[in-house]
Every structure is written in structure tokens, then in C-alpha cells.
Amino acid sequence: MTTNSDAGTPSVKEVCDFITRYCSWLVGCGATCIRVEKNVGRIARAYGKEADISIMPRHVHVSVVDDDSHESMTSICKVKNTPISFNINTRLSELSWEIADGKVDFGDAVRRFDEIVDNDSQNCWVVLLLVTLANASFCRLFGGDFTAMAIVGVATAVGYFLKLTMLSRGIDMRVVFIACSFVSAVLGATDVLFSLGDTPLVALGTSVLYLVPGIPFLNSFSDMLYRHYICAISRFTDAVVLTCCLSIGLCGGMMLMNVGMF
After folding, report:
1. Torsion angle, alpha carbons of 167, 168, 171, 172, to 10
2. Are 179 and 249 in contact (CB under 8 A)?
3. Where on the phi/psi map is residue 72: left (φ > 0), alpha (ψ -120 to 50), or beta?
């Protein structure tokens, strides 16, 4: 996206195009509706505009009006289909404050936005390590012994690596959840199958906790509080579907290893 307004006030069209892309990414990477509204309002006011947005499950509708000339522009775009990213979410929010504080002009803001969405600086290996340690800690929290923690750590590392690999290839999220929970459950069931520790069922039960879609559940509750009911229902439904996919994979792994309730 290029602009001729680097040194001056951007036009309504330029602001509308920028905000539309901004909303598409912010909603796609896991921001709540209220955060999107506040960030967009902050950006629009910085350029002497007013912005109204309607956030739907798969599309964002943006209308921008100039306060002085009353010129208006409306745009609709699809929500970006991207994994949840706290890094992009936070950096885009920081960008809105920099724009509001006058630290960057419009041209720089557009360039910063492109850099943020094109270069997610998260190290996937560090994230994998942290997820592994976190899930192993959950195992300990639920009473698992150190053997169970080790098994859960391995199951989590393998499952999360599989998740990253499948998502990078554009595979449907529901299929990803089924496959990852199945693999993690099979590895977690080794504690039961070979009697490696004293808390095998804890290892099996916590081996798939890293897949629980907590962010969609929390976002749906936040959206409901702020009366974004359509988005709230949509996000809650997505979270329930992913939870069902997780359960399918877990049950499949338990059946294969002949452990648990089967």
C-alpha cells in the first residue's frame, strides 16, 4: 500500500483503506471487538476523521467520515485467516498509540503496519519450548509425578510441532486439532501402557491441554459483555467445534492404545 500523504493529512480513502487492512489483521490474530473499536477510533481521530466499524465473523465493514468536509468512504474486507498471534496483536495496538501521539506520520504508519504483519518476530522454537514447559507444569499442577511431566512434555512438543507444520501448509484447523490431539494422546498413553510412573492417567489427561482453545472462549465472553453478540456466538461456536475436534483425537488415541474408558 502506497500513499501520497506522507507529509500531510491523508485523504478519506487512504485512511479507510488503511483502517480496513488494520481491522482485518487485528481481528484475525485474536483481538477482541472492543480492542478493535478503540484502536480504530484512536487512529481515525488522529487524522481528523470519524470511523464506524461493524465486525462480523468473517468480514469487517468500515466507514470513515472527514470531520471538516464530511466526505465519506466505505470499505468491506475479509477477516485475515491467520493463527492467533499475541505479538502482532500487541504491536498493532502499540502502532495505534504511536499514531495517536503523533510519533509517526501516515506514510510511516503504513510502512510500520506492513513490517508488523509481514515479519512476525516470534521465534517458533522458543514458543514450542515455552508451550512444552507450560503443559508439563499443568501436569504437575494436577498432581502428576515427574515421570508424567516428562511424558507430557514429549507429547506436547511433538504435537505442537505437528500443529505448526500442518498450519504452515494451510491445513484446516479442525483437522489439525484432531491430528495433534491424537498424536499427543498416543504418546501420553505410554505412561499407562508401560506403567512408567505413579500418575499415568494424569499424564494422559493433560497431554492435550495445550490445544484447549482458551482465547476464543475468552474473546467470546468479552464480545458478549460489550454487546457484539454475533461475534460472541461465532467465536464461542468455533471454540466448541475445536474442543470437539480435540476430544475426537483424544478418544481416538485412547482407543488405539486401549486405555481409559475404552
Report:
1. 40
2. yes
3. beta
Torsions phi, psi of 206, nearest 5?
-95, -5
- Per-residue three-class SS string for 127-191: HHHHHHHHHHHHHHHCCCCHHHHHHHHHHHHHHHHHHHHHHHCCCCHHHHHHHHHHHHHHHHCHH
Residue with cell 516428562: 150
Q: Round to whole Å and give the CA distance between 66 and 44.
A: 9
What angle, rounded to 10 degrees, do the helices at 106-118 and 12-28 form? 20
Enclosing H/E stretch for 54: strand 49-55
Q: Identify the DSSP state of 257.
A: H
For residue 201, which of 240, 130, 145 has the smallest C-alpha distance? Answer: 145
**Sign of the dihedral defined by the CA atoms of residues 94, 95, 97, 101, in that order:** positive
Please check whether residue 109 is in contact with residue 95, taking contact to mean a CB–CB distance below 8 angstroms.
yes
Question: In this predicted model, what pLDDT tens digit does every residue of 225-241 receive, in sequence order?
Answer: 999 999 999 999 999 99
The distance in angstroms from the start CA to the end CA of the chain is 56
Q: Give the CA radius of gyration of the chain.
A: 22
pLDDT tens string 58-90: 999 999 999 788 889 999 999 998 888 888 999
Which parts of the chain fold into alpha helices (H)? Answer: 12-28, 33-46, 86-100, 106-118, 124-141, 146-168, 173-188, 190-193, 200-206, 214-225, 229-257
Q: What is the pLDDT of residue 260?
A: 65
Please name which of 83, 206, 205 lies closest in space to residue 134, comparing C-alpha atoms. Answer: 206
Distances (CA, A) of 118 to 17, 111, 112, 167, 227: 17, 11, 10, 17, 32
- Residues 52 and 60: their CA atoms lie apart, in Å, by 11
pTM over 0.70? The answer is yes
